[in-house]
Amino acid sequence: MVPSSWRRIGADGTGSGSRLLGIEDTLAGIRDADLLAEVEAARGGFLFATIAETILHRQRARDAEAAARGAVAGRRQAMARDQRRRDAVREVIENEPTGPENLQHIHSVLALCGLPYRDPGDAREFFREYGKNSLSLLAGRLKNPATGEMEFQGLPYGPKARLVLLHLCTEAVRQRSPTIAVADSLSGFMKEMGFAVTGGERGTIRQFKEQLARLAACTLQIGLWDGAGSASTLNVPPFRQLDLWLPQGADGVVWQKSVQFHQDFYDNLIQHALPVDIRAARAFSGSARKLDLLFWVGYRLRALQRPLRLTWDNLHRQFGADNASIRSFRQAFKADLAHLQEVFPKLPIRLDDNGMLLQPADAGALLIPPRAGKPARKAVAA
Question: Which of 327, 326, 339 is nearest to 291 (CA)?
């Protein structure tokens, strides 16, 4: 029979036999190679049992994190691709605060003035009303470096035109320069937004370059009305110059070397640049209307001092260019807003039979930095 005094001392010198059994259980729960290496390094040392328990706690924390990731992955498996992307973006934004590296910028005017959603074909003008104001977008021409002809470019449209504007405005703000070297930055931006960078007739490079050419050739007219007998019209040419060149062996693909904003537009952009979380823009990079909604809500939340009520007719004029009837627009808009709220669950927006009610909120609703200088007022009844 083993003397009782022997049973009180474990093989590692840490305590009683019952304590030794506890250590064996502890060690059995540690599986990760790096943690096992820490156990071996501490074996035989002072307070080995305590160190082992600490390492087991870290192992269990890792296991819990892995289980949580597995649960999220399992939940996302049942989602459609776009919903999976939105859910992943929401998780990232909630857990990683927005910093300068996550921010893009777009001009506040462009956040209010939406471009066409679909290809307008040969149309030379696009007109849209938003509240008491209106936008007229006029198509233009560019000199072709291969033929020397001034060629009609058509109106910019779709999500890629909006993303190009977002990229160019961002680079102008970052570089504090109205001239942007497009050839050095566009491909990287396309990758950042989740697009494969592909060449050829139907490749993404050609699609983005086409929208850039259309944007550079067009002019904007914005009509402002106070509703009481006073109105003004602003001519806003976004771009002053676009340099085009045709590389050797490019099979007719024209490259934009650089683009220069009009100085008036650039100066106004620096004063009124609207921050946009690039991670959210990436989540909606395939939808023109959702990008418009993201920009518009961001603009409104930064300036809103009291509840804003918009009727369905207001919303239809602002966002319903592709929907002839308000009924079909309402269904599409409800889905778009629901998708935006999947990424930003704190958005204080509610839809009802009368339209939309947008409540004042702090910057946390869209997780963008607040506008400096103006404290928010208390909300009052709409």
Answer: 339
